[in-house]
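Hello support,

Our group uses your service weekly, and this is the first time we've seen a run hang past the timeout. The protein is MFS transporter. I'm not sure whether the cause is the sequence or the server load. Input pasted verbatim:
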Amino acid sequence: MTSRTPAVTLAAVLLTLVVLPTSVTGSGVALPHIERDTGASLEALQWVVHAYNLTFACFMLACGSLADLLGRRRLFAAGAALFTAASLASAVARDVLLLDLMRALAGVGAAALLTSGSSILATAFAGRARVRAFAAVGIATGGGLALGAMAAGTLADSLGWRWFFGSHALAMLPVLAAVPLLRESRAESAARVDWAGTAAFAGGVFLLMFGMVEGPQWGWASPGVLGLLAGAVLLAVVFVLVERRRPDPMLDLGLVRNRRFMALCLIPVVVSFSFVILLPLLPNYLVVASGMSSRAAGATMLLMTAPILVAPLLAGLLIRRGLPSRAVFTLSLVLLTGGGAWLAAVLRPDIGPAALAGPLITLGVGLGLNFGLVDGAVLTVVDPRATGTAAGFLNTLRLGSEAVVIAAAGSALVNLTEHRLSRAAPPGRAEDPGAVADSVNSGDLDGALAGLPADGRASLLDAIAHGFTDAWQTVLWASTAVCALLSAAIYLLLADREPAAEPAGRPGTHSTV
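Update from on-call engineer: The timeout came from a worker crash unrelated to the input. Re-ran successfully.
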């Protein structure tokens, strides 16, 4: 390995981690533009976001196993090629169903990139260099989250939504060029790929998310939705049984019994309920209820995402000053939970950036304090030979919770908005509150107001703004309650004093979690 390879390795992985989060934060901002261009239904539009999140989550564990088995550089290269090709195809897709399919393929590529990239860094750096590398991971990922909504809004408003996806492909070209300079690594005794476990896990997540998305359209008590949810539970049971019987499972269930490992893996779940649900959904609220443009909504989201660029540095400073990682994680969880409650309390139809600044900045700092720190800590409490699997499990829980929470929140907003509009009974459209709720939740205010006279528009606008706000507050308070419960559980689990596993490259070193 040449002397420049560590720098190239870090640069390639960090650029990847800037690009991948923009698909989460930016896709929601682009949806109104996609709807106007393609005339797609809300259901089809939702899958532009959900398809990416779904495959990203479903293939994370499998990619972790493949990275250990086939080689981390090899899987990183395959993921980069697939993500680039799918992003380019998304940019030129003329049919929304083809766009949904390409977003799903991009999610598979993203899963390979994220899992192998984390494992590459864990094996390429040791000691303090590893700590600095994973601090940079937090900053890079935060940069992607910060830029996603603003970039999507700017590109969609000025050049068109296709340039948003095309920019992903362009940004990945330097990553592809760097692949030959990366060092290959694999587990010394990696097991064969657990295809049965992979199929059961991916199928279960798919059925769960599909049921969440289709609940508002089909009805939550409909046989189709109940069947999807029952199938998800059944496949979850099958997955556990398969993993318990295999000598070389995709997921070592012993990891689940590691209290500190599970506590660290639950932190991203709190992030999903407090922070991530806002990324694709809040911009639509700002467009509909506050009358912002897509660009202005994306810029407002910077209040929440920009702090992620600096908060990881604060976390590193606190740890260097002697504050235990457990205390930093606890502070992060308090800010995430409190920020969600603050946002629920102040949200109103005419809200502007000034009133949003406090809760959104609080949420951004809360996330930034654990960004990168969680990933590095997880890899210090598992066997060094299983870093790919550990990274896969962490990111599966992270992306899986994001996919399910976003789908559930989106469905809840549709249902709650429809219910509020039904009670408000606005003139001229009282007979079809479901159609109005669909238009509102896709960010298409013009579609909700189409064909109404001026007086009817004013009445409906008021009903939409207040009904949508009520729906958002209900979702935010429910999410805050979940965050509080999870945070308490994480705090107790992190109190476990069991000795940590030695991290790769630093014998005799233990985690400070």
